[in-house]
């Protein structure tokens, strides 16, 4: 059976485990079971209970004691061990009845930018288990508050995309914490779209501690723009619409079709409603307004949207149970389910974009 899923990567503190914990609650809540896999041999006890835990096979602590290695060396050794003993992971995954997998990765960037073991593991997942994964690369949103750090993040994202050669979505996580870092030099959509990086180079040239690196900064920015691969989505784990949008994007990237209650209906209809359909305000939501200028208004709007959605689903379910015979006579019709949306429009808010 073909399996789909996400490989969640990113530097330490980017919110990988928090995101996986959020998925382990969010997806089952919409009747979408998943198999969570902790692939971090050095992890403390995660807030979620992994269905498969690589620490049952290998532990960084044990490797450090046995081979007298440091933390980073032990981590690389651990992934080489996982690569050699892939049969263990293969057997655990085959035992899982769920077709959607979520891998929680460690934060060492060496694994995702230059080490062959992870690439080998991904290749084996693809060939032996027919796994189709989307890489979700998380980065703490506070990186956009420091332009030089933002350039480094763009470069790391590009390097990861070229190294892993998998569908990849780059994400600015913890976006709801961004206001605490003060005003940004540019609107937030400038950072998410990663366009016209000359502007950020010009800004860095006005800063005393980065002006001497003008040539290096401009060369890196030109390389990122030449590839044209890097862009960012935004994520706040506790925001339902933010999680929904990111899940929808990962589904599109790996080709996963979540049918749910639509499984009994036409497969083409399932495809276009669960994968290709737009989310409310998905195409025209202004991230600057959503997360910085008018966050409270959007929060209130989304709370009302989800309340109305829940009431609509409950009402539809009640009617369906009360009128089973009538539904059979008229044939199956598309009805609201927990993975569809009401289609409400975003609130009308006066733009406060910076010039």
UniProtKB/TrEMBL annotation:
Basic and acidic residues bias: start-end ranges: 306-329
Keywords tagged on the record: ATP-binding, GTP-binding, Hydrolase, Nucleotide-binding
Compositional bias of kind Polar residues: 333-345
Pfam families named among the record's database cross-references: ATP_bind_1
GO molecular function: ATP binding; GTP binding; GTPase activity
Chain segments annotated as transmembrane: none
Keyword presence, Cytoplasm: no
A single GO cellular-component term on record: cytoplasm
Superkingdom as given in the UniProt entry: Eukaryota
InterPro entries: Gpn, Gpn2, P-loop_NTPase
Keyword ATP-binding on entry: yes
Record region (Disordered): 306-355
Subunit structure: Binds to RNA polymerase II (RNAPII).
Function: Small GTPase required for proper localization of RNA polymerase II and III (RNAPII and RNAPIII). May act at an RNAP assembly step prior to nuclear import.
Family: Belongs to the GPN-loop GTPase family.
Protein name: GPN-loop GTPase 2
Gene source species: Wallemia mellicola
